[in-house]
Backbone:
């Protein structure tokens, strides 16, 4: 997408309020703790706030500046950038509730993933992977409405391990949680 088009879309973007996918990812955080955590596409800040209770240092990023200004669940360390591009450290846990819908074009940055629901997720994951600490865990949400196996194959092509750890059926789609780790080999 041209930069000027993206800027126009971002000006109109609104905060994504916590929904089924947000709560499903929040469920996966139970029992997880550590030093540092990163919430990519933090939106309202709901998940960033959940992480704050068990991680010492938590950062949220979002490509939409409007969203960060309007956040319902305000947190301290929020950065407006693409995925993890502005960061120079590694994290014990990275989470992302991806914009995963398969769409011909990106109209809503909060939900639209581009062709096969892969275009934007691949961009986000590609930026996130170098920021995962050696023993770290990266959890993202995707859906049966996107080519989630294509996404898993993409992660594996980068020499990481990726597996589905949970699924939840909604009436029109199945939410899928993928866990990514550094490959042991
Ligand atoms: C489905 S919403 C999830 C919001 C929140 N994490 C939640 O679970 O409720 C996806 C979020 O990702 C943000 N986003 C989209 N593309 C992004 C990118 N390339 N880098 C960072 N954030 C992005 C959107 O602005 C939106 O806030």
Residues:
């Amino acid at each position: 997408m041209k930069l000027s088009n993206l800027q126009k879309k971002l000006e109109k973007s609104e905060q994504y309020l916590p929904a089924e996918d947000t709560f499903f990812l929040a469920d996966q955080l139970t029992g997880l703790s550590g030093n540092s955590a990163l919430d990519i596409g933090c939106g309202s800040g709901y998940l960033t706030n959940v992480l704050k209770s068990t991680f010492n240092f938590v950062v949220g990023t979002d490509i939409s500046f409007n969203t960060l200004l309007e956040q319902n669940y305000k947190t301290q360390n929020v950065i407006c950038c693409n995925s993890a591009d502005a960061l120079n450290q590694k994290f014990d846990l990275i989470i992302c509730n991806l914009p995963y819908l398969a769409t011909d074009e990106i109209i809503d940055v909060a939900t639209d993933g581009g062709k096969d629901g892969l275009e934007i997720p691949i961009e986000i994951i590609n930026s996130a992977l170098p920021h995962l600490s050696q023993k770290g865990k990266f959890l993202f949400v995707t859906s049966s409405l996107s080519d989630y196996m294509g996404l898993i194959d993409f992660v594996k092509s980068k020499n990481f391990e990726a597996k589905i750890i949970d699924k939840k059926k909604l009436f029109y789609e199945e939410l899928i949680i993928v866990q990514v780790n550094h490959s042991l080999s």
